[in-house]
Amino acid sequence: MDKRKNNGGKRxxxxxxxxxxxxxxxxxxxxxxxxxxxxxxxxxxxxxSWAVKLYFEYMYGKPKQQTDITTNGESVTIPVINxxxxx
Length: 87
Known about the structure:
The protein has 87 residues and is mainly α. The chain is built from three helices and no strands. It has a domain at 19-60.
């Protein structure tokens, strides 16, 4: 058999876990929710930067990321292509 790494197709353990497993995890973590809220509240009171960032990202969403697609500060020119119908 070919010993190359299989990057595509179905693999055991891949993909999203079933909803049942996700629900079990939520049930296990639910009793810790007050503790997590208290820890975040204390970190916010101490003005921890990670806590402030986390709070604002969850309350208002992450800011849109802008990517500059220029080369050395010069804009890229894309030629216009016109398609004509031929007989």
